[in-house]
Each structure stands twice: as structure tokens, then as C-alpha cells.
Amino acid sequence: MNFDAARVAKMVQTALRGRNAHAARARVIADEVTRHPDGMWYVPVSVMRDTEHMALIYQAFSEVEDALEERENLDVLLVPRIIPFQKWEDVA
Questions:
Q1: Are strands 34-35 and 27-28 parallel, antiparallel or unpaired?
Q2: Would 91 be classed as within a structural domain?
Q3: Looking at the domain assignment, is residue 52 inside a domain?
Q4: Which residues lie below 8 Å from residue 12, measured CB to CB, with a gap of 6+?
Q5: Helices 54-72 and 5-17, interaxial angle, to 10°?
Q6: Quick one: what percent of the chain has pLDDT higher than 90?
Q7: 35-52 tens-digit pLDDT
Q8: Mapping DSSP to helix (H, G, I), strand (E, B) and coil, where does residue 39 land?
């Protein structure tokens, strides 16, 4: 099956929504998705720094990578772009 950057971005975003609530808040940066000569798609994902739940988020990223490879024969690497976490007290 032929994939383009927009389709890969949409597939990854949909897969993230199906994971835990913390990973579902992550957003694919669609205009920065690229395919490298080795065939792997690099998919930047914006995610809020949440120190209590980062392990769950990274686990979900890995599950999405594995699921897309298994179901779609699509080789992706989710690349986190961490947004600093601000506590409510910091912005109020």
C-alpha cells in the first residue's frame, strides 16, 4: 500500500486516540512528517510534559509503532516534542 505524509499523520493520530488518556492528548505535527531513505516514517508528536505519566505516554507511542507495523506494514518512529508542563498556579 502507498502511504504519503498526510495519511501517515492521520493514521498515527487515530491510533494515539485509541490508547490511554494521556497519549490521546498528544498531537501529531503533520507538516513535519518525513520519510527517510531507509523507508521509515519519522512522525513528530507534540506532548505535554507530565512527569507522572511519561512512562504511559512512551509506552503508548511504542504500542502505536508496533501496531502500525503489524497491521499496515508501516514502519514509523514517533518522535516526541515535549512541551513544558505549567501548573495551574503558574498561569493563574
A1: unpaired
A2: no
A3: yes
A4: 28, 43, 45, 64, 68, 76, 78
A5: 130
A6: 68
A7: 999 999 999 999 988 888
A8: coil
